[in-house]
Amino acid sequence: MFSPIQFVFIAAIVLYLLDSIWEVGSIFSPNKFSKRLADYFLLSGLSVHCAFLIIISSQSGTLPISTLFESSTFYLSLIVLLSVILKFLYRLQSLTPFVMPIVTGFSIAAVTLVKNDLALTADLKTFWLFAHIIPIFLGYASFTISFIFSIMYLTMERQLKKKSFGPLFESLPSLETLDALMWKTITMGFPLLTIGLISGTVWAKTTNILGLLWYLDPKVLLGSLTWLIYAAILHLRLGASFHGTKVAIVTIVGFVIVMLTFIGPFLMGHKQHGYEKSSLILEQEIIIPEEPGMIKVES
Q1: Disulfide: which of 36, 68, 150, 226 matches 248 by Cβ 3.0-4.6 Å?
Q2: In angstroms, rounded to a whole number, what is the distance separating the alpha carbons of residues 27 and 272?
Q3: Domain 1-120 of CATH type 1.20.120
Q4: Contact between 26 and 33 (Cβ < 8 Å)
């Protein structure tokens, strides 16, 4: 079933679920659902989530992205952390009611990946873990928040067209503010993605882990497509006509590509983009010496 450590993450999910209920409830029924209690659930859940990551990181001796489950939980923690920072920095009380239900759903889905057999090979447990993967994850988190702002923008726009000036409308920032926030989060994520892709290119060419045709690796292609989409958004943003609804729609498309890039190698089988079945990794660590009947296992 689950290990004691994994139950720590489940505790974080419970707190995220309670926060989601209170976040949404505070919009439509503020007398019954306190925003202060919602903040308590949010910060408590994030603290437990971070504690879980610290524990598994200390046990593995590396960053908590060695498996698909760990990668997913690390990615989700960055989304929550970034949303908390933006919420209190810009006083965006309406951000987390959109973010946390999505994070909670993704967290529950991540639990199903506990028994996934894919793990990082030793080639990624090096400097490249920091130079390539960390900027990529931070970029993905920024693009996820820009996706949330896009949803908020389209929701606000719909409320205006329907002239529905209820609690949801009153809780949302103006269209101008949401447009600016989409721009800021994309601007923040794009350099991080660029750094991650450049360092990944150097890693692939120097280690030859993906072979001579490394540029045809599915995740490399999807990552390049993601970069082109957000580069196009930033370029078109210079034009006066490209903003608002157009940016929101293209940002949603970019987020779909981000998700495909993130889970792509795991859907394609083992030994894709530096991942192998953990059982195969263990087999590679077993060395059979010349003397029969003896097996030496190297750590």
Answers
A1: 150
A2: 44
A3: yes
A4: yes
pLDDT digits (tens, 9 = 90+) for 113-128: 877 655 655 555 566 6
Q: Give the count of beta carbons closer than 10 Å to the beta carbon of residue 59.
A: 10
The predicted model scores a pTM of 0.86
Distance CA(186)–CA(164), nearest Å, equals 29
Query: Residue 297's beta-bridge partner residues?
Result: 286
At 88, the amino acid letter reads F
Which uninterrupted H or E stretch holds 287? strand 286-287
Residue 8 structure tokens = 């720590």
**Residue 181 contacts residue 235 (beta carbons within 8 Å):** no
Q: For 2-27, what is the HEC assignment?
A: CCHHHHHHHHHHHHHHHHHHHHHHHH
Nearest CA to 170 among 18, 19, 30, 16? Answer: 30
> Using one digit for the tens of pLDDT, what is the confidence trace for 267-288?
665 455 555 555 454 444 444 4
